Amino acid sequence: MPKGYAEGPAAEEAERRLDELERGAPRQDAATDRPAVFGSTEDEPEPHFLRWVGEVDADALFASGNAWGLTVQRVVAAENPR
Q: In sequence order, what are the beta bridge partners of 6?
């Protein structure tokens, strides 16, 4: 009798992972997002990633005149979104 889709090592691994999730283990594939500051600068007038929130004070940056059109967007934090 051929193996069905719910048999074998892949199915056992899926069942094991489901049990872990039910016990409260963190998801491995869940992307972590962070708030990032985007805006325009004299060198780069198109809106672009400036810094992560917490690394820069968006209000102070705007008040300094070094950047404008600032927005805060949540982005996946795997790498700098540049």
A: none
Radius of gyration of the chain measured on its C-alpha atoms: 22
pTM of the model: 0.57
Return all residues near 1 (Cβ < 8 A) that are at least 6 apart.
none
Assigned token pair, 58: 């968006």
- Tell the residue number behind the tokens 């949540």, with chain if given: 74
Q: Per-domain residue ranges for the chain?
A: 9-76
Angle at 15 between CA 11 and CA 32, to 5 degrees: 110
Structure tokens at 43: 């060198």
Phi first, then psi, for residue 18 (nearest 5°) are -60, -40
pLDDT (tens digit per residue) in 13-54 = 777 777 877 887 666 555 678 899 999 999 999 999 999 999
